[in-house]
Write a structure and sequence with these properties.
Elements lengths: L5 H7 L18 E2 L3 E5 L9 E5 L11 H21 L3 E7 L16 E5 L7 H4 L4 E4 L3 H8 L4 E5 L5 E5 L7 H9 L14 H12 L37
Antiparallel strand pairs: 1-2, 2-3, 3-5, 4-5, 4-7, 6-8, 7-8
Length: 245
């Protein structure tokens, strides 16, 4: 855990049965287990946008152990089910930095996978034309790149197809820039300029009232942690750094 990391602070709110009232209501996780959590992302240019992250403060998801990786994909599948039922099947992406030196400006060092409800038949041209790489057979290739300290851009489409690209010098919020452009919202990639707090609360309300069925895990805790709108007042937002890269 890092005291300076906003994801770590959100994570800490899941370790107790008492919700952390220092968190704004829109920042509270919609689901968590003993290893992972999911919460709405700032900048909902598409409603239903979530971030999935391990509780452990690690710089990229490729550094997860094989056992934790398997658990993460189970957790991701549960989130995918929730989003599909309420907002549509999601795609996923991660900018996996090799170290703090390869992060885009002001980006968090706590790994997170973006989940956005939208359909893509193939990776965007803005990715394939700019970044070397292509389709991979499994996440094992991501883990290999992470061990070699190679910064990467990972994308998974709704059909499960996985892609991996070299990402040595990406601009801040690269993935969001690309997808916002595809949605016809080229100016709304910046979460700081277009946070859409109201959409974040609607996402929490929709997802927390629709529990996941048939999700099996060895987790000691797996529960929604959100209080529905109106049950708590907004507190002063915790400081965030740009996380939606």
């Amino acid at each position: 855990m890092s005291t300076d990391c906003f994801i770590c602070r959100i994570s800490q709110s899941t370790t107790s049965r008492i919700t952390n009232d220092d968190l704004p209501s829109y920042d509270r996780p919609i689901m968590s287990d003993d290893l992972f959590l999911a919460f709405p992302g700032l900048g909902q240019f598409i409603e239903g946008y979530l971030l999935l992250s391990p509780h452990e403060h690690a710089i990229n998801l490729g550094l997860l152990s094989p056992k934790s990786t398997a658990r993460f994909f189970e957790f991701k599948q549960a989130i995918s089910e929730k989003l599909s039922n309420s907002f549509g099947a999601p795609i996923f992406f991660e900018h996996g930095a090799a170290s703090s030196k390869t992060l885009p400006p002001c980006c968090t060092e706590h790994s997170h996978l973006h989940a956005i409800p939208m359909h893509l038949a193939e990776p965007p041209k803005a990715v394939t034309n700019e970044l070397p790489g292509g389709r991979i057979d499994s996440f094992d290739e991501v883990r290999r790149w992470a061990k070699e300290r190679r910064p990467y851009f990972y994308m998974e489409l709704s059909d499960g197809a996985q892609y991996l690209y070299e990402a040595t010098k990406l601009p801040s919020q690269f993935g969001r820039r690309v997808l916002a452009e595809l949605c016809g919202l080229p100016d709304e990639w910046d979460w700081a300029a277009f946070p859409y707090f109201n959409r974040m609360e609607n996402v929490q309300h929709q997802l927390c009232k629709n529990p996941v069925r048939n999700y099996e895990t060895n987790a000691s805790v797996f529960r929604p942690t959100h209080r529905l709108p109106g049950e708590v007042k907004h507190s002063k937002p915790i400081a965030r750094v740009p996380h939606s890269h």
